[in-house]
Structure formats: structure tokens, C-alpha cells
UniProtKB/TrEMBL annotation:
Protein name (Swiss-Prot/TrEMBL): OmpW family protein
Signal peptide: 1-22
Keyword presence, Signal: yes
Transmembrane regions: none
InterPro entries listed in its UniProt record: OMP/PagP_B-barrel, OMPW
Key words of the record: Signal
Higher taxonomy: Bacteria, Pseudomonadati, Pseudomonadota, Gammaproteobacteria, Alteromonadales
Source species: Agaribacter flavus
């Protein structure tokens, strides 16, 4: 076979394989991988019985199994639901005169619904996209450490949060069904936390406490996807 014919055959094969990778209306993507929630938090100072203690809180990172289901409304638009196994974060106390470090921990679920636009639907393996959507974060299993409960801290409660989300990412097609995905999101998460302190040595009997924390995490996901 002449070189020119071989070249044409290879080009035709690549064109066919790439065309098979293009998204179409009605396609469904199921992604499974690892998702890391990395808070970029800021906090008000903790108020105890109306008094400003002069220090706030911070929240650490956590990684869990991320689940993602997307449905293509058109060849370039899909709607995507982000879910995951529950994230558990340590709640740390910033520099303070009480000598506290880890105050407690809280678990949350941050389901996020996003509308994504895919730039390149020509059939290329590399499919970049951007998106925006809404997030609802539900906190549960909030608790102080045993040490802090012994001091008299109790009744830790974090309000649920409703906010926006933006993201950028890409799919890379390995074949007509399997893909690799990577994405980064910014999610607007803010919560009001409340608690009670009972410690006669500190002069705090049933003293109510409160603090507002803007968690505002960056959420990183690396996953494997299957296109139905």
C-alpha cells in the first residue's frame, strides 16, 4: 500500500474514532473518583455570652469518594449533580489564650447542581467545560472533642447553607465509553454555629456561644467516567 493511502487510512480511522467521542443530546455520564474539599475559610470571632473572645475558627481539608451524574440537554450543555460520601472536618480554634486547638468536628453533605457548557464538541478527545450552579450543604454529627466536653462545651450545632457554585474542568475520552475527568469548583458555603459552655471555674453557666464561618471551599475532583 502506498504511503499516501496508509496516511489517508490512518486519518480516516482517527476521524471516525474522534467523531464517536462527541457528546450528543441525551447522553448520560456517570463519574466516580476522589473529591477533596479544601476550605478557604474566614471566621468571625467567637462570642460567648455576648462577649467577643478575640479569636475565631478554622476548618481542615477532607477527601471522600465523589459521585457525579450528568445528563446532556443539548450537544454542548449538560446538567450535573455532584454527590459524595459524607465529608468530616476537624474544627480548629485559632490562636487563643485558652490553649484550645481542635475544638470538635462536623460532618456534611454538599449536593451541588450545575449547568455546564462544553466548548469543543467537534469530536475531539479533550472536552473542556465551565459551569455554574447551586449548592445546599447539610451539617450533621457535630460534636466537641471529649476533652472539650469535659471542660463544659456542649450542644454544637451548625446551620445548613445554600449558595452558588462555579467550576471548570475537562473530560478526556479514552474510547467511545470511558473517560477521565478532572475539575475544580468554588462553592459558597457559610454557616452560623452555636454552642453552650457550662464551666463554673470560668464563670460560665449555660453561657451561649456563637460564631459565623464562611467555609467557601475549593473542591477538587479526579474521576473515571462512563458514557451511556
Amino acid at each position: 500500500m502506498k504511503k499516501s493511502n496508509i496516511t489517508l487510512a490512518v486519518a480516516a480511522t482517527l476521524l471516525f474514532s474522534c467523531a464517536a467521542q462527541a457528546y450528543e443530546k441525551g447522553d448520560i455520564l456517570l463519574r466516580v473518583g476522589l473529591t477533596t474539599v479544601a476550605p478557604d475559610e474566614s471566621s468571625s470571632n467567637i462570642a460567648l455570652a455576648g462577649a467577643d473572645l478575640g479569636f475565631g475558627l478554622s476548618v481542615d481539608n477532607n477527601t471522600q469518594v465523589g459521585l457525579n451524574l450528568a445528563y446532556f440537554l443539548t450537544n454542548n450543555l449538560n446538567v450535573e449533580l455532584l454527590a459524595a460520601t459524607p465529608f468530616t472536618h476537624d474544627i480548629q480554634v485559632n490562636d487563643n489564650p485558652l490553649g484550645l486547638t481542635k475544638l470538635g468536628e462536623a460532618t456534611h453533605l454538599p449536593p451541588t447542581l450545575t449547568l455546564n457548557y462544553f466548548f469543543n464538541n467537534s469530536g475531539a478527545a479533550f472536552q473542556p467545560y465551565i459551569g455554574a450552579g447551586l449548592n445546599y450543604t447539610l451539617f450533621f454529627d457535630e460534636e466537641f472533642t471529649d476533652t472539650n466536653e469535659g471542660i463544659g462545651f456542649s450542644d454544637l450545632d451548625l446551620d445548613a447553607s445554600f449558595g452558588y457554585s462555579i467550576q471548570a474542568g475537562f473530560d478526556y475520552a479514552v474510547d467511545t465509553h470511558w473517560l477521565i475527568n478532572a475539575s475544580v469548583r468554588y462553592i459558597d458555603i457559610s454557616t452560623d454555629a452555636s454552642f453552650t459552655l457550662n464551666n463554673s471555674d470560668l464563670g460560665a453557666n449555660n453561657a451561649p456561644g456563637a460564631v459565623t464561618v464562611d467555609i467557601d471551599p475549593y473542591v477538587y475532583t479526579l474521576s473515571v467516567a462512563y458514557k451511556f
